Amino acid sequence: MEIKGNEAVDEAPKNATKFPIISLNIHPPASDIAQLLVRLIFKNWSSSWKNQIHDNKLLKIKKEPLPQRKKRYEEMKIARLRIGHTRITYS
């Protein structure tokens, strides 16, 4: 007992094997490429941060260059406190 349409469904994979070249025009989404670029940039930045030759006071305190806080102002204030750069020390 054969169901109508099954012949076409069964024949399609057989015909597909006859084509020697399969072209895939699949491109990754832009978000994946952006994430990869960010990861590569951070890896490069992090390695240059850790391999600095000159005396970097902040490197002794902070092992990674990325900020821990969302606001730049907070990060700047905490970094200045850590390295001892305040108005009290310069007055």
Compact description:
The protein is an all-alpha fold.
Helix vs. strand class? mainly alpha
> How much helical structure, as a percent, in the residues?
40-55%
Count every beta strand, where a strand is a DSSP E run of 2 or more residues: 0
Q: Can you write the helix and strand succession as a string?
A: HHHH
Describe the structure.
With 91 residues, this protein is mainly α. The chain has a domain of 60 residues. 54% of the residues lie in helices and 0% in strands. The chain has four helices and no strands. The relative contact order is 0.06. The model has no long low-confidence stretch (mean pLDDT 77).
Descriptive terms for the model:
91 residues; mainly alpha; 4 helices
Topology, element by element:
Blueprint: H1 6-16, H2 30-50, H3 57-61, H4 72-83
